[in-house]
Write a structure and sequence with these properties.
The chain is an alpha/beta fold and 220 residues long. 33% of the residues lie in helices and 20% in strands. It has 7 helices and 10 strands. The radius of gyration is 17 Å and the shape is globular. 37% of the residues are buried.
Length: 220
């Protein structure tokens, strides 16, 4: 989330950021207000909170994931709140992050990404439900959605090139740095990949000449 905010502010976007309310020992960071950034602590599953947060926005990027003691349907409830906000207002686009083990096509998954998904149980079910709620809700409204399914996330510097799409191959060793994922999400929020449900990973060497995108993207 902090990396998405940083990339968006670099490009002079105005950002409203919803963060979990801090509790003693929770480790939740406070975001100090600064020009272009309006942080708010609140519950992402509360339709009223989400509706107020997204009113007048060009896009919502949803990075919500389960934490300790989170309800088992956290992602689905958050997706429901987002679609309700779109239905009650003018939010034109939702960008939802899930994971390569969630909805990436089985025939394009290899190694752990083919073996592990059935073992994830309720956590995967919740995220699949979130994908379905966003997909069906935004299609019903005639609005845009993008679902991004990254593999393993890394904390290193940019890899320089990413590959993305609904049918790219994802294997056990594939990953994407968080800084590159932030760039992908910001680009998705711009409308570049409306309607896509895609994996995004660091490009393989044989993709460097074609089929890979340089980050940060230059077409905004």
């Amino acid at each position: 989330g902090l990396l998405v905010i940083g990339a968006a502010m670099r490009d002079k976007h105005e950002i409203r950021a919803l963060v979990r309310p801090a509790r003693p020992g929770s480790g939740v960071r406070q975001l100090p207000p600064r020009p272009g950034l309006a942080p708010r602590a609140g519950d992402a599953t509360d339709p009223a909170v989400v509706a107020e947060l997204t009113r007048g926005c060009d896009a919502a990027i949803c990075l919500v994931g389960p934490v300790r003691e989170a309800p088992s349907d956290l992602c689905a409830r958050t997706a429901t709140a987002l679609v309700a906000a779109a239905r009650g207002g003018t939010l034109p686009r939702i960008v939802l992050v899930t994971g390569a083990m969630i909805g990436h096509p089985h025939e394009h998954a290899h190694g752990r990404y083919r073996v592990m998904p059935p073992l994830l149980g309720p956590a995967r079910d919740d995220r699949l439900a979130a994908e379905r709620i966003v997909r069906e809700g935004m299609q019903e409204l005639g609005r845009a959605h993008v679902i991004v399914r990254p593999p393993r996330l890394g904390d290193g510097p940019t890899a320089g090139l990413v590959s993305l799409g609904p049918d790219i191959e994802i294997g056990t060793m594939d990953s994407i740095p968080r800084v590159d994922l932030a760039e992908v999400l910001l680009e998705a929020a711009s409308g570049r990949w409306d309607g896509w449900e895609m994996a995004a990973r660091t490009a393989h060497r044989d993709e460097w000449g074609a089929g890979a995108y340089a980050v940060p993207f230059g077409a905004r």
